[in-house]
Specification:
The complex is a heterodimer of chains A (about 350) and B (about 190). Chain A contains ten helices and twelve strands. Chain A has about 350 residues and is an alpha+beta fold. In chain A, strands 7-8-9-10-11-1-2-3-4-5-6-12 form a twelve-stranded mixed β-sheet. In chain A, strand 2 and strand 3 form a beta hairpin. Chain A starts with a helix and ends with a helix. In chain B, helix 2 packs antiparallel against helix 3 and helix 7 crosses helix 9. Chain B is mainly α and about 190 residues long. The N terminus of chain B is likely disordered. The chains are: A alpha+beta (about 350), B mainly alpha (about 190). Chains A and B meet through helix 1, helix 2 and strand 12 of A and helix 2, helix 3, helix 4, helix 6 and helix 7 of B.
């Protein structure tokens, strides 16, 4: 029998080497992916890097802002319009026939009385009624802020936070996954727009589309649990839907949010506007987009029993907790390092 | 205690950061350099974990495509090699989990047409290497992972422990058990 040292040497000599054809296949695909990324980079405009750097250097806002907008998005996605009556029937019918969706979203947030937004982000979202949902939020420089995956197969919720090199995995309780994702995939959008009385905004141009606008002002949020209101107290939320008059499909979904002082928005009042656009219905989604693919050096955040108990409020409870825990741990590490 | 990285490691880290920086700007030459620098290590680790050349090549293919499409930020790639190894290991684990695929001991002998497009013919491994990969396939997945990352990935036990979210003692004991078993197989 060989010694452990000899065995290690034998294993170490084992190699698999690629030849030119393998190189060509892998490099060709990687080059294409690189070119695709360069052609579809988010546009940066306005006070980008300098402003962003200033915001991110603020300990208070650094994570809470990101968490705030995520929470607001989750609140809106869960039930923005109620489910009472059927309106926009043809749109609803068309949406119900779609299985996948890719779209972008622009997110801005202001402090009261300030003209310039202190937070900007570009978001890419991928939905599949069969697989789940992925959201990627980028800063104005195109750097990934967070990646959130709802994975149907494993029934789990994964958030990857590259800035702090951390991730979180949470199992999703029975029934919650279906409820949450059903509201995010195209068929779920149907119920968003089959709801409370709305106001017609008339026709307007949105990007290259002539669109008919609908608005639901003062969305009812009475169903939001009290602890979520403490975390992010939304005072008012208005949702707008813009439908292309030619195709009868949505070209924009806008959400305007006013929030009072809460834990997750750094105890400051916030006005936020999200605009979802560039919808690609039944799109062929990028391969592997639903794979969390967590890098080697990322550490896991254990949210503990509190978050698990509140897992029924995924998207309302966990998202802000992530920002908060990441912020606290970072502070703790810094404190220890400087001690 | 912090161990100061050797100057070579520092130079390599700096070089990698420059490459990632160039890559983020769309430099295909940087992409090529990263690929050529790490492809064999990544292929070997993928093969050690999957013992399937098709799957190993696909795994590395997916990692590079994903990396090119979305290069991690500079802070996340202080150790580009470790990052790519982790990506390969994660993907390999996902593949095994998804397909409930147990590594096939005779991964080298899958049928395929005798053409240049078949990974069996394209990817090259010596007879001894093939024997090693087959022996590794007989280990439990968690031991195989430690062996692949420590020996083929050239990561320290501490780095392996960090990557797998395990204690260093667990990693070392898995490694010892694996080596003991391999002594009887090789």
């Amino acid at each position: 029998m060989k010694s452990p040292k000899q065995v290690e040497q034998i294993i170490g000599r084992a190699r698999l080497q690629a030849d030119l054809a393998t190189d060509e296949r892998i490099l060709g695909a990687a080059r294409a992916a690189l070119a695709d990324r360069m052609n579809h980079r988010p546009q940066t405009s306005g006070p980008g890097p300098a402003l962003w750097r200033t915001i991110m250097e603020s300990k208070v806002t650094r994570y809470s802002v990101a968490a705030t907008v995520m929470l607001a998005a989750a609140l809106v996605l869960l039930n923005p319009f109620g489910r009472n009556s059927v309106v926009l029937g043809e749109v609803a019918q068309k949406l119900s026939e779609t299985r996948t969706l890719m779209h972008k979203e622009h997110r801005l947030a202001w402090r009261p009385g300030e003209d310039k937004p202190f937070f900007r982000a570009e978001v890419k979202k991928y939905f599949s009624s069969d697989v789940g949902m992925v959201e990627e939020q980028y800063d104005p420089n195109g750097v990934l802020i967070h990646r959130i995956c709802f994975i149907k197969e494993s029934q789990e919720f994964v958030i990857v936070l590259p800035r702090v090199k951390k991730y979180i995995r949470l199992p999703v309780p029975d029934g919650v996954y279906e409820r949450f994702v059903a509201m995010m995939v195209p068929s779920g959008l149907v119920s968003y727009f089959t709801s409370q009385p709305y106001t017609k905004l008339g026709r307007s141009h949105f990007r290259d589309f002539e669109a008919e606008g609908f608005e639901v002002p003062h969305v009812d949020l009475s169903w939001v649990p009290s602890y979520a209101k403490y975390l992010f107290p939304i005072q008012d939320l208005t949702a707008r839907l813009r439908i292309d008059v030619e195709t009868n499909m949505p070209v924009a979904i806008e959400m305007v949010i006013d929030a009072d002082r809460g834990l997750m928005n750094g105890f400051q009042k916030v006005h936020a506007e999200f605009t979802a656009y560039d919808f690609q219905w039944n799109a062929e989604l990028p391969e592997g987009v639903f794979d969390p693919n967590i890098p080697a050096d990322y550490t896991r955040i254990d949210l503990g029993s509190m978050a698990r108990e509140n897992a029924a409020w995924l998207g309302v409870g966990t998202l802000p907790v992530v920002g908060f825990v990441a912020h606290r741990r970072r502070r703790r590490h810094k404190t220890l390092a400087s001690a | 205690m912090n161990v100061r990285p050797a100057p070579d490691a520092e130079r390599a880290a700096l070089r990698d950061r420059r490459l990632v920086h160039r890559l983020r700007r769309g430099d295909t030459d940087a992409l090529q350099q990263v690929y050529h620098r790490y492809r064999d290590d990544l292929l070997t680790v993928a093969m050690a974990l999957l013992n399937d050349r098709y799957a190993a090549e696909d795994c590395v293919h997916d990692v590079f495509v994903h990396f090119a499409a979305d290069p991690a930020d500079l802070r996340a790639t202080k150790n580009l090699r470790g990052y790519l190894l982790r990506c390969v290991a994660n993907r390999a684990k996902n593949q095994l989990k998804r397909r409930q695929l147990q590594p096939v001991p005779s991964g080298d002998e899958q049928d395929c047409a005798d053409d240049g497009d078949c990974p069996t013919h394209r990817l090259m491994a010596s007879e001894e290497s093939t024997r090693v990969f087959e022996a590794l396939a007989q280990l439990p997945a968690e031991q195989r992972e430690v062996i692949a990352l420590h020996i083929h990935g050239q990561l320290t036990f501490r780095e392996v422990a960090g990557q797998l979210d395990l204690s260093i003692n667990t990693v070392q004991s898995r490694y010892r058990y694996a080596i003991e078993k391999l002594r009887t197989l090789l």
